[in-house]
Amino acid sequence: PATFIDHQREERCGYPEVIYGLHKSAERILSASREILKLKTNVLISRINQEKANILITEFPDAFYCETAQIAYIGDFIQKFDSKLLIISAGTSDESVVKEAYYSALAFGLKPTLIQDLGVAGLHRLLAYKDELSQADCIIVAAGMEGALPSVVGGLTTAPIIAVPTSVGYGANMEGVTTMMAMLSSCASGLSVVNIDNGFGAAYAALRMIKTFEKK
Amino acid sequence: PATFIDHQREERCGYPEVIYGLHKSAERILSASREILKLKTNVLISRINQEKANILITEFPDAFYCETAQIAYIGDFIQKFDSKLLIISAGTSDESVVKEAYYSALAFGLKPTLIQDLGVAGLHRLLAYKDELSQADCIIVAAGMEGALPSVVGGLTTAPIIAVPTSVGYGANMEGVTTMMAMLSSCASGLSVVNIDNGFGAAYAALRMIKTFEKK
Amino acid sequence: PATFIDHQREERCGYPEVIYGLHKSAERILSASREILKLKTNVLISRINQEKANILITEFPDAFYCETAQIAYIGDFIQKFDSKLLIISAGTSDESVVKEAYYSALAFGLKPTLIQDLGVAGLHRLLAYKDELSQADCIIVAAGMEGALPSVVGGLTTAPIIAVPTSVGYGANMEGVTTMMAMLSSCASGLSVVNIDNGFGAAYAALRMIKTFEKK
Amino acid sequence: PATFIDHQREERCGYPEVIYGLHKSAERILSASREILKLKTNVLISRINQEKANILITEFPDAFYCETAQIAYIGDFIQKFDSKLLIISAGTSDESVVKEAYYSALAFGLKPTLIQDLGVAGLHRLLAYKDELSQADCIIVAAGMEGALPSVVGGLTTAPIIAVPTSVGYGANMEGVTTMMAMLSSCASGLSVVNIDNGFGAAYAALRMIKTFEKK
Amino acid sequence: PATFIDHQREERCGYPEVIYGLHKSAERILSASREILKLKTNVLISRINQEKANILITEFPDAFYCETAQIAYIGDFIQKFDSKLLIISAGTSDESVVKEAYYSALAFGLKPTLIQDLGVAGLHRLLAYKDELSQADCIIVAAGMEGALPSVVGGLTTAPIIAVPTSVGYGANMEGVTTMMAMLSSCASGLSVVNIDNGFGAAYAALRMIKTFEKK
Amino acid sequence: PATFIDHQREERCGYPEVIYGLHKSAERILSASREILKLKTNVLISRINQEKANILITEFPDAFYCETAQIAYIGDFIQKFDSKLLIISAGTSDESVVKEAYYSALAFGLKPTLIQDLGVAGLHRLLAYKDELSQADCIIVAAGMEGALPSVVGGLTTAPIIAVPTSVGYGANMEGVTTMMAMLSSCASGLSVVNIDNGFGAAYAALRMIKTFEKK
Amino acid sequence: PATFIDHQREERCGYPEVIYGLHKSAERILSASREILKLKTNVLISRINQEKANILITEFPDAFYCETAQIAYIGDFIQKFDSKLLIISAGTSDESVVKEAYYSALAFGLKPTLIQDLGVAGLHRLLAYKDELSQADCIIVAAGMEGALPSVVGGLTTAPIIAVPTSVGYGANMEGVTTMMAMLSSCASGLSVVNIDNGFGAAYAALRMIKTFEKK
Amino acid sequence: PATFIDHQREERCGYPEVIYGLHKSAERILSASREILKLKTNVLISRINQEKANILITEFPDAFYCETAQIAYIGDFIQKFDSKLLIISAGTSDESVVKEAYYSALAFGLKPTLIQDLGVAGLHRLLAYKDELSQADCIIVAAGMEGALPSVVGGLTTAPIIAVPTSVGYGANMEGVTTMMAMLSSCASGLSVVNIDNGFGAAYAALRMIKTFEKK
Ligand SMILES: Nc1ncnc2c1ncn2[C@@H]1O[C@H](COP(=O)(O)O)[C@@H](O)[C@H]1O
Ligand SMILES: Nc1ncnc2c1ncn2[C@@H]1O[C@H](COP(=O)(O)O)[C@@H](O)[C@H]1O
Ligand SMILES: Nc1ncnc2c1ncn2[C@@H]1O[C@H](COP(=O)(O)O)[C@@H](O)[C@H]1O
Ligand SMILES: Nc1ncnc2c1ncn2[C@@H]1O[C@H](COP(=O)(O)O)[C@@H](O)[C@H]1O
Ligand SMILES: [Mg+2]
Ligand SMILES: [Mg+2]
Ligand SMILES: [Mg+2]
Ligand SMILES: [Mg+2]
Ligand SMILES: [Mg+2]
Ligand SMILES: [Mg+2]
Ligand SMILES: [Mg+2]
Ligand SMILES: [Mg+2]
Questions:
Q1: How many beta carbons lie within 10 A of that of residue D29, not counting itself?
Q2: How far H71 CA lies from chain E's nearest CA (Å)?
Q3: DSSP β-bridge partners for residue H45
Q4: Is F74 strand, coil or helix?
Q5: pLDDT per residue over F96-152, tens digit each?
Q6: Which of D110, D134, G33, H18 is most buried by its number of CB atoms within 10 A?
């Protein structure tokens, strides 16, 4: 068969295998979902477009689907952790990425708050949320273009920061490569970075952190 | 003056300003050190070569200096946090990077353990440390060449993983750019990545996490 | 005429000219196929989409076509060699590439076995096939994203390994360029690499090896 | 002869030809200087190292030379324009670049003020100079690493901003290419950018602006 | 909400927030427009395609829209500044970019003149406009391919020059990256550069300059 | 107006302005054609697709159009030069490029011969045309993939060679960038190279050579 | 300790761990050599310069060292395999790479023949060795610049071909990256490629093949 | 032996094998020179530094050597062709490249004229040589930075133009890669381009042209 589900992933890595839908047919997504649901009570599917989602929903009518986030989720969203996860973005155009992070976090049982459009061209917008920044246990910061927001946030807080470069921009932005390289070169210390548009990965990094430390 | 020390950085970001020595003259490093020591009891200097370190040590004879790590530290190493920080590398050639992470962590008051040369070409070496992996609260994984080690570690543990690409390799490795891009593209979920050879940044990311969660 | 068939290629290189369909019109593919079939009993066409394949099948109704692999084959699949060719992939998403390798190998008269979805994020999946790995005479390893699988396989076996980077991934993956560069930088010794998504080329490299050594 | 001095450049472009010393021998620099001084009363030489400068000074003992800026100037610094040119940098490591801008501006007859080390990791440093920012007629902003400073300045002021990426950083910084690309992708509107480390060019852009508008 | 309008931007940066339409839905564009029009009398929208513009025009039937420039503007075009802004292009193919600059400038209250198709392959075309060049207070120069036009203009005038690389070209042009890099490497001194195809940004840079200097 | 036809181009550069259709609307192409035909008896249009060509042909029913080459020509093809121009390609997939060169050459009055599919994987195909190679006065060599053909031709002949990289290939071929870079790095001396897929430019380079030398 | 020797590598991968000397101090190389020699009778060290080799030879006076190849070997060269390994290069400048391959092959117990300077600019040189080509069981082909040689060899033989790009060239060659990308894009089928200048890896790929097939 | 001289190259390609000295030892250069001089009366060596040249001159005291051009020549410079080869450069800094072209041309028996420092920042310098441009049979145009000069020359003349990008510049110039890409993207038709700094290759391209056409 084309798929070999990793049924022990939750035990080892903290969460069951997530289906990456981008390069898969609806049929492959469906059979992988059924396979995972044999042993688990829910399944998360990332990068699934409306067309494939429609097919999924035919079989699983209660499935959650967000087109902006390209995320589907079969099962209940149940909060399992108390740490405060703050997700912020630089602009409205980053919406799909922060929503991927937000719904992934919900699926993981985390407690996320989402605040959008706080880019550095209008600093007062970010500064209006100083309390949220200082109370957060973990901050996911998504930005496109020059990717300056995580650096500024990094200079304002002690919390762990996961920077998500987005592919928002054009020309010299190189479909987010410039943003990513800029974030990796940040003058603010202790930022760490995930792949371009990888809201899912950012939420997972938060899960690793929160699960490990809350467990203690 | 050329330098404007950020004296509130510890309050905001969890650690005082660290001097980045690479593009600075010994003189600039010295004056910045003196400036920081007016208000703080210790100062960390990264990317400082032997020649500049010698000048520093003339004025501060008790300063710690590790040439492999290119790190100098004036002050006492005092452990302030209990979480287990595991630092591992893929090969002996990554030594300078993991030592930069190690001594930075010591300076931050963290409790690091360093295990080197666990690359995936001989998997049994990593598997011999399964206990250390599963007990760690945070894992820094440095690797050069194709940068596969963090993916494998990511598939074995729940702990937060900070991947550090190193510039070890040649040709297609592109001085670590390939390693970095590979780590950002990892099939293991929830890794986050810092700049090439940035052992310091990895340790700082660990500090943000540990300081935030231990404080709770 | 636009096409000059190299009728001696089998004698020189071990297999007749294969038609690369990507940039050719259906008409050009058809006339080249007819030209080759004047002197040979079969013809292999790679990178041919469904639409062009339909036209081909109108003229050659017995032709084999696999849309996933984008491969067409006119003639019989006849096994000519006994060596064990193992083809493995890291994920379900790599399916089109390993199927291109698989059907090319069949057309070449090789004896391929295909096992999919053995990526390093769940190492036990690969380790479950240790016997297959150690008995193989040649291993084709396809992977996308960070391309770690060939390094791990390289550390487990003596057999020749042909690594195939796939364009599965996004962002820092750079449509497979990162995967390819990573495989070329592998810490495991003696891997060799073919072009991104080049399942056909990997199978041909296996053919060169097996034909040369079995002939002895 | 190897050099063809453009004696009308001042009339056309606002300033006589400047000698770009990087790829020229001391001898070529000397003969070009003599040639320019036949018709003009001063000459500016950029990218000239200490060794070549020493030879220049033997012939022109009153020449000004700044090693940090790699700039030599034969003649008097005479202020000709009243507009306020503010030059700021993100870090001490950018010193050579802002000094190249500063001394070029002095040679051009501009009225520059230089303030260093105002990087976004400690925003209060920049905000302490809000008055200088709002009173400036033109602002040159130099930064390395992720190059976020011009975006933040761009969000705080109406003045024209010339962003200068510096090659300060390592790894993903790509010797300033990332910084440059980031600045060109800025979310703040109306920034314009010059080449990496091109303090001279930034000052010249200021000269074009100030000379044109003061003349009116 | 997904959008957080920066209502103080005009006071700080000289012009109200402009809506960047490329990655936004028609609905997001509409709600942001309404939000801005609560406090301002006009709104500028860049990178908005015909389809989204149609929806906008349904609500704001008097809105201006230029498909070539992908610009929409709700409000009156009122000239507020007297400085001469000259906008020139190298070829007919650059039309969309210079029109973006032209209509942005009109919306900003500037006084732009547009002359197209003056590329260096037929120098007499540019030289026919020597008067316009020498009388301009600011020149925006757009070019694709090798981007030579700004260098030639830079050698003919004292005025400030804002170079706009366009994505016109193919192959080695790299969708305008080559043009942009070439402009940044210009042998003519004092050019400054904006992002590829960024006519809007060039006009904004002109606004910063003209507003600052006319105000004096 | 958007277009400023360079009516003296033939006198200066040997051939009237050619309309580059890729980024132009049918309407712009038509008006430029009419403008050129006011003073010249024919006009060449490159990179014009079938749809735009249809509109052109409505007005100029005698126009020549080749969809493969994306070339339109209004006027008569009249041979004006006697030198032998040989155009060869490595594969059938390069057809559009060599046809662009071929029809451009015809329009220029040159005497081209076209031989396709002589790639180095079957050297005897090229060697079968040794006479044509040695009698040619100028050779255009188009190849995609690794671009080896010009090097081999360069080692067999004295004639001037214009190498045309094509975008035929995938993955590591980088849409022809690899081919182009390889040709520029050729071990055969005295090759010169034009842009990727630039059959038109190659023919024009031949025109410059032949026109200059036949005129003598 | 910094080094964790993989003592089972020979059993798993066909040859003991080889010490990669490039980023290691002489001291680290020495201690790793001693560690390996505890269990094995010989040790191979790659990328070791003259200075480090001198220190090695002080302790192991019988060690073999070739400065051109940057290879040291402690132990006896004993032939263990009968297959014919042909190593060829395009030019004299590739000497260091083919010698790295040659001495690695000798250390592995293979039977290599080395023929240099057979580049495609003078095809008769390669054709003079047609017998050697057709009798070889495996061919390593090293070339720099445009890397055309493996394609030509690939079109002449059935044997497995391992292409080694070298960093010989300048400018567009990009320190061998162009060569590598070109080889991966070869029009000849079934070539596989190793890293730039990786003579060692090519020999190891030959070892995997020969060891596996001779064992049968 | 490491070197296999191609003694028939003059008969095939118009000039005997030239020794590329960059990656060769003095010893290899010497033995290749001796080998060529067995059958020919002169030998050209490119990219040979002063140190290696000194050793060459010890054996061949009459050898010509130009350090700027890094060219050595053993034999007499004898003019064999009458066509006018014009070599021009944009700046003094391009001197080494145009001198490489100049001395190569002399060695080839061509009749070159060299005019330096005609860059587009001061157009009148080029226009002062309009007669030389219009009388030339072939023009080599070297430029660094943005590489605009060939485009301007291309718009002024009918003669064949060989553009040579030089590595003069910094930052965005990417060591000449930007210049090269820009030249390949020129808006002037019919330019052809050689590798970065490849003055030798440009002269050889001129030789191919002139030899072929003068022979007729
Ligand atoms: N020339 C070489 N090129 C690439 N890899 C090598 C080379 N020589 C040895 N290696 C491998 O590189 C790895 C280096 O890891 P380490 O020496 O621990 O940094 C080991 O697995 C070696 O077997
Ligand atoms: N949005 C995502 N980005 C990156 N990786 C993902 C994403 N979603 C799932 N994955 C992981 O990607 C891998 C895909 O492998 P496969 O689905 O077998 O091709 C699995 O390990 C998934 O857990
Ligand atoms: N196929 C082609 N490739 C490159 N340049 C071309 C081509 N066809 C025409 N050109 C030239 O490209 C320039 C285009 O400028 P414009 O048409 O005004 O945008 C003109 O100078 C044309 O002569
Ligand atoms: N620091 C600098 N950066 C860029 N261009 C410069 C610099 N200094 C001078 N230039 C210009 O670079 C060109 C160099 O040409 P040349 O000196 O003839 O090689 C001249 O037009 C100078 O005005
Ligand atoms: Mg916004
Ligand atoms: Mg090791
Ligand atoms: Mg899977
Ligand atoms: Mg600082
Ligand atoms: Mg035009
Ligand atoms: Mg063919
Ligand atoms: Mg040779
Ligand atoms: Mg000059």
A1: 23
A2: 28
A3: H19, H72
A4: strand
A5: 999 999 999 999 999 999 999 999 999 999 999 999 999 999 999 999 999 999 999
A6: D110
